[in-house]
Design a protein that fits this description.
Length: about 350
């Protein structure tokens, strides 16, 4: 098997280069970082993360909101827990969700009320073995959450006021998905190390999953059942303390995964987005050998090519990427300014 790209996939249109710019971000208590971002449109977006972290000791959850002009902090003192927020999704002022984890490893689910985030209940909340890892919101306002229950269920759906844990996968996998992705056709995909599965509204389809060694899968773009992109990073076997990870960029044809040629090989890929037609568009990355600017990848119709962010005086580590609905080339990328939880780490936002 070669690259695994069918002629139809190679015939896609090319995206125009994007001139990335840094955007002012509110100060956070070091070490501070943004872990995820979502946009409802040009005038509303959310970013979530953590501040006040010290090494492996968790800090406090952090959230920002974009009002079309500037990013501002959202007060979270009423939540009353220490930890971090790691996933966010939304389609409008009344349809947005964020997921956090506290210092005890307990999941916290937050709903946006138009001005701040409020904790909300969900089936299995606080129970041993139940956690949420990712969220996606469909155009109708329905919310989909990846995670795991003690019974092996991996997908939670909220439709109106009704909550439903979907049936466990037939394969009874021991893996926990790292995220959930929706397609324009309405399919729901779960992804992570050891799991790639599609829910079509009535049944599961399980695809061969990537089985990495000390790997993290940070994004999946399902163009079709036989045209899938998977991104992340993989530390591999052993190595010295501080060994950087290798870039993970895979293409799947529904049966196997093939490593794809990429502009850089040492670092991370953190998130992948599609264009308005659901075709590959952009990937956010951190390049170990060129750390003072983000290293984005752009699909040019036949290959992923380099696209660089502005040069900074600090390291630039982008943790997440989101498209802006209604904008032909609108994006938000968020992260931090340090490769470790140091006193120098502050928030980084580019668009």
């Amino acid at each position: 098997m070669g690259l695994g790209l069918a002629p139809a996939a190679l015939a896609r249109g090319t995206g125009a280069p994007h001139a990335w710019q840094a955007v002012p971000a509110p100060a956070g208590t070091p070490a501070a970082q943004l872990r995820d971002v979502a946009a409802a449109g040009a005038g509303l977006a959310w970013a979530v993360g953590e501040e006040g972290r010290s090494g492996s000791t968790l800090g406090s959850p952090l959230a920002l909101v974009w009002d079309g002009t500037a990013w501002a902090r959202t007060g979270l003192g009423h939540l009353g827990f220490r930890g971090y927020l790691h996933s966010v999704a939304g389609t409008g002022a009344g349809s947005a969700w964020a997921i956090g984890t506290d210092t005890a490893g307990v999941t916290h689910l937050l709903a946006w009320d138009g001005g701040t985030w409020r904790e909300t209940d969900f089936p299995g909340r606080g129970q041993s073995g139940t956690s949420l890892t990712g969220v996606a919101v469909d155009p109708g306002g329905g919310a989909w959450f990846s995670g795991r229950t003690s019974d092996g269920q991996l997908l939670l759906h909220r439709d109106g006021g009704t909550w439903t844990w979907l049936p466990a996968l037939p394969g009874a996998t021991a893996a926990t998905p790292s995220g959930v992705q929706l397609t324009p056709a309405g399919d729901v995909w779960l992804y992570g190390v050891g799991i790639v599965a599609r829910w079509n509204g009535s049944a599961w389809s399980e695809l061969p999953a990537y089985q990495g060694i000390r790997a993290s899968v940070t994004g999946l773009l399902p163009v079709a059942d036989d045209d899938l992109w998977l991104v992340g990073y993989d530390y591999g076997v052993g190595g010295p303390v501080g060994k950087p990870p290798g870039v993970l960029l895979l293409h799947g044809d529904g049966s196997t995964w093939e490593s794809v040629t990429k502009p850089f090989g040492v670092g991370m890929l953190n998130g992948i987005v599609a264009d308005a037609q659901g075709q590959p568009d952009r990937i956010a990355g951190w390049d170990f050998w060129d750390q003072t600017r983000a290293h984005y990848l752009r699909w040019d119709g036949t290959a992923w090519v380099s696209e660089r962010g502005p040069v900074a005086t600090t390291p630039v580590v982008m943790n997440a990427l989101a498209s802006v609905p209604g904008s032909a080339d609108g994006y938000w990328a968020v992260g931090t300014t340090s490769t470790s939880a140091s006193s120098a780490a502050q928030l980084r936002i580019e668009r």
